[in-house]
Each structure stands twice: as structure tokens, then as C-alpha cells.
Design a protein that fits this description.
The chain is of the alpha/beta class. It has 15 helices and 13 strands. The longest helix is centred in the C-terminal third of the chain and has 38 residues.
Length: 519
């Protein structure tokens, strides 16, 4: 997602202390822009522009090095176990994507082959999800690329809302107060979709021992204003697959004409290769649309997502715009317009380079590594909250064991996460969804570049950090936590958040204290 940034006032730009201003050094002040070395130029001794565009120009070599030096302060993506987002692609894929940076994907007349490559990806992904190919009803399955699953979900919600509204108007009924049913553990993009498009949320709450929706409880919430049900193939907290078929069968049994949208952002490129017999996709008759993130287990750099509808009739025609752009007619259903072709081309590379055999090999390895990590953490005394053996995403969600009565533990999951951060690892700690008694947890996402060797290094550091925390008293841990929050965590040092938008109270996080998990 993109954050809102505050434009600083003049008095907030930051000034040097008076004592520093008075220092007068007798140094060379040659007006050269570039000497024998980048660091011998005048730019190396000046602040980089931060708030206003500079008047003069800068040599390309210096601009590159200055920005590269700044970016070196970012974390190591390979040690970031919080994110599902791809951090490794082959050199050939990177080269193809770099060669396409200048292509405007929307310009079909100029770049017809890039557009055709998207069509090939939609076809391959649709067939992977068992989309009907008989074209009997509304012209067959249809889909499009998106910036990510967030846009894909927005489009799916718009389609469900418009289709419900058209039906209500045709029946002479009120089209006010549409609602959608979803888990309280949904990713924040679902909350954005409901708020932006004025759809009420009906939440199926998690419990201390159930982290996904209950099919019966879900279907019991259906009423005449329900536009659809969101079912998640791999929740962001524990990676567990929600029971799509269970919800589907109950809707069929009760003869309810309610569509299901499957949020397969993470699981869409995992389940077909690890548990191919699991019925979660268009094999379930009530599933009308599915989104998937190409930049997660689709193995492409961010950001690319996909959304597929089982038939064109589930995508209301009035939402689709026929555009004559630069000489070519094209149908468009998107929240964006101009965008680069690189990520779509990267997705096509992965699909034909790896094929089903390659994806299966990678997802199988990730599942084995996740199971290995899960067993190791169990041996260290942690409580495992995620599923194993392919019953969920290749991730490990775990928490500290409950303390015995009369025994006090001086640290929690957040303290352990902070200790691991000091070792270089980004292992996030979360407060679970509401109605789970404020359950805390940690999560490790197993991505393509997380090998068994690196997994062993993580296990060793977790054990080391545990031992260190066990030896500290409560006051020492409190002081360390305070220091880490103030000086080591980037979120505490961030200055881009506008004060008006801090500590909002309208989201599930704002109302209940749930932590929005990283995707």
C-alpha cells in the first residue's frame, strides 16, 4: 500500500544547532561538480535534497551513488520473514522486466504483444483455477491483471455490489445498505474496499482456538442485502485455508443465490500444486471470482495481481469501459490506467519457465521447510498455530506457551521479535483478530529463497534470543524494549505520517487492537 505523507511546514524542515552554524572551516570550495571521485565532489559534502527540488543538476554517477548509499540503510530482504512478497527472480527474468520499463501497458496499439502476453497469463491462471471453458452462459471466463490483490479485490467487490444492486432494482426493492460477509482476520484491503465503496461489513469472528471462519456461522449471516461472501485461501495470520467447499455446499443446500469471492492472494499459486484435490476454486459452483497475487507465491517482484471471473455475466457490463486509446479499441475494467508492462512480462516468464512441474517443486520445498521449522519450534516449547503438510500456506505461526499458575514470564512475543530484529531477522509479532482474548503470535513466511540452511540459522537465533530473555528481569526487558522502540524500529522514527491520520478508530485494528498483518 502507499502511505499518506505530510508536507512539512517551513519551521519543521530541520535546522542545524547555532553552535554548529558558527563553525568556520578553511577548506577548498572549488565549484567543481565532479572531480576524480564521487566522494571528492562537492555533493558528497552537502545534504541531499529532501523537501524541495534543487535549482541545479547533478552528474548521473553521483546521483546514482548518493541514492544507492541511502538505500543501503534499508533492511536485507532475504532476512525479512514478515512479507509474502517475492524477493528473488532469475537474472533472465530481471533482464526481460528491465527491458520493458518504458512500455505503457495500456497502449495496445503500440505494444500489442505485451497485451497479448497478459491474455495468455489470464488464460493460464483461469485454467489453473478450473474456470469453465465451455462458454455456455455469458461468454466464458474473463480476467485481468491488476497492480496487486488489493486492486483485484476492489474490482471484485464492485462487481458483486453492482450485480446485487441491479437485481434489487429489477425486483423493485431497496438497494440501500449492501453488506458483505468476511472473517475478522481479513487483510486491510477488504476493509478499504467496504469503506470506499460503502458496503457494510458482517464479520465472522475468530476464537482463541479457531482462526478461520466457521461455514455455518458464515452462511447464517446471509440476508437479502448480502452482496457476497469472502473466503480466504490462506489467512495472513496463520496461513490456514478457509473452507470454501463447506460454505459453497451450505449455500447450495439452502438454495441461496449468494456469490463467493475467494481471496487466494497467497494460496492461489500454492494449493493447486501441493493439494490439487482440494476444492476451493471454480469447481465450487458458488465461486464467481478469485484474486491471486503474482508477486507472492506467483514468484514475481511487486506489484502484480490477477482477478478472474467464472463467466462474463458476473462482471456487469456498465462497469466495463470500451476505450479507443491511441487508435485501438479495448475493454477496460481497472482502477488504474497507465502502468508498466514489466510485472506482467515477469509473470509470463515464470509461468512458462517453471511450468506446473517447476511450481510444484518449489512449493513442495517450501512446504517441507515450513514443516521442518514447525517441528523445531515445537521442540523449543512453542505452541504452533499454523497447519502443516500442505493444509495451509508454507508459513509457521507460533506463540509462547501458556505459563503455569504461579510462574511468571517477563517477556512476550513482541519482546522476542525485537530481540530477533537485533540479530537482523524481521520476524513480526501480532495481536490476533478480535475475540481471541488478545492472543499474541509470531509468524515466519517461508519464501522461495528461504533455504533449510537459513532456516537452521533462524532456529539457532530464536533459541539464543529466548535464552537471553530468560536471564533478564522485567525491568531490564522494559528498558530494552523502550530503547528498541525509540531507536531501532523504523516505524517509531517515521516522520511521514500526518498527525491528523494517526490512531484512527474506524478499522478493526482501531476498534479492537488487532494488528494489521504484513502481506
Amino acid at each position: 500500500m502507499v502511505h499518506l505523507a505530510k508536507v512539512p511546514a517551513e519551521g519543521e524542515l530541520g535546522t542545524l544547532p547555532e553552535a554548529v552554524k558558527k563553525i568556520n572551516l578553511q577548506l577548498s570550495n572549488d565549484e567543481d561538480s565532479f572531480t576524480t571521485s564521487v566522494y571528492g565532489s562537492k555533493f558528497a559534502a552537502e545534504d541531499l535534497p529532501k523537501h524541495e527540488m534543487p535549482e541545479g543538476e547533478m552528474p548521473k554517477e553521483i546521483a546514482y551513488r548518493m541514492i544507492k548509499d541511502e538505500l543501503s540503510l534499508d533492511g536485507n530482504p532475504m532476512l525479512n520473514l514478515a512479507s509474502f512478497v517475492t524477493t528473488y527472480m532469475e537474472e533472465e527474468a530481471e533482464k526481460l522486466m528491465a527491458e520493458s520499463f518504458s512500455k505503457n501497458f495500456i497502449d495496445y496499439e503500440e505494444y500489442p504483444q505485451s497485451a497479448d502476453i497478459q491474455n495468455r497469463c489470464v488464460s493460464m491462471i483461469g485454467r489453473l483455477f478450473n474456470a469453465p471453458t465451455d462458454h455456455a452462459e455469458g461468454g466464458g471466463a474473463v480476467g485481468t491483471s491488476c497492480v496487486g490483490s488489493s486492486e483485484a479485490i476492489m474490482l471484485a467487490v464492485l462487481a458483486m455490489k453492482k450485480r446485487w444492486k441491479n437485481k434489487r432494482v429489477a425486483e423493485g426493492k431497496s438497494s440501500q445498505y449492501p453488506n458483505i460477509i468476511m472473517s475478522s482476520a481479513v487483510q486491510v484491503c477488504w476493509e478499504k474496499a467496504t469503506r470506499y465503496f460503502e458496503v457494510d461489513e458482517k464479520l465472522v469472528y475468530c476464537t482463541p482456538d479457531r482462526y478461520v471462519i466457521d461455514p455455518k456461522e458464515t452462511v447464517d449471516l446471509v440476508d437479502e442485502n448480502t452482496i457476497g461472501i469472502c473466503v480466504i485461501l490462506g489467512t495472513t495470520y496463520t496461513g490456514e485455508y478457509e473452507d470454501v467447499k463447506g460454505v459453497n455446499d451450505l449455500l447450495v443446500e439452502r438454495n441461496l443465490d449468494i456469490p463467493i469471492h475467494v481471496d487466494a492472494a497467497s494460496g492461489g499459486f500454492v494449493a493447486p500444486f501441493v493439494v490439487p484435490d482440494l476444492q476451493w476454486d471454480f469447481r465450487c459452483e458458488k465461486v464467481v471470482s478469485i484474486n491471486v497475487s503474482g508477486h507472492k507465491y506467483g514468484l514475481v517482484y511487486p506489484g502484480v495481481g490477477w482477478v478472474v471471473w467464472r463467466d462474463a455475466k458476473y462482471l456487469p457490463q456498465e462497469l466495463v469501459f470500451n476505450i479507443n486509446y491511441l487508435g485501438a479499441d479495448q475493454s477496460s475494467f481497472t482502477l488504474n490506467f497507465s502502468k508498466g508492462a514489466s510485472q506482467v512480462i515477469g509473470q509470463y516468464y515464470q509461468l512458462i519457465r517453471l511450468g506446473k512441474k517447476g511450481y510444484k517443486a518449489i512449493m513442495s520445498n517450501l512446504t517441507r521447510t515450513a514443516d521442518y521449522l514447525s517441528e523445531a519450534l515445537t521442540a523449543l516449547g512453542f505452541v504452533i498455530m499454523s497447519k502443516k503438510s500442505g493444509e495451509g500456506l508454507p508459513l509457521v505461526a507460533f506463540r509462547l506457551p501458556d505459563v503455569e499458575e504461579g510462574v511468571e514470564r517477563n517477556y512476550d512475543e513482541f519482546a522476542l521479535a525485537h530481540k530477533l530484529r537485533a540479530r537482523g531477522w524481521v520476524v513480526p509479532a501480532y495481536t490476533m483478530a478480535p475475540h481471541t482474548h488478545d492472543l499474541k503470535m509470531l509468524r515466519v513466511v517461508v519464501r522461495e529463497d528461504f533455504t533449510k540452511n537459513r532456516c537452521d540459522a533462524l532456529i539457532s537465533d530464536i533459541r539464543y534470543c529466548q535464552q537471553m530473555l530468560d536471564q533478564l528481569d522485567k525491568e531490564s526487558i522494559r528498558k530494552q524494549e523502550e530503547f528498541i522502540r525509540k531507536h531501532a524500529m523504523n516505524s517509531e522514527q517515521a516522520k511521514h505520517n500526518h498527525p491528523r491520520f494517526r490512531k484512527e478508530k474506524h478499522s478493526i485494528q482501531g476498534k479492537h487492537g488487532k494488528t494489521h498483518s504484513i502481506c
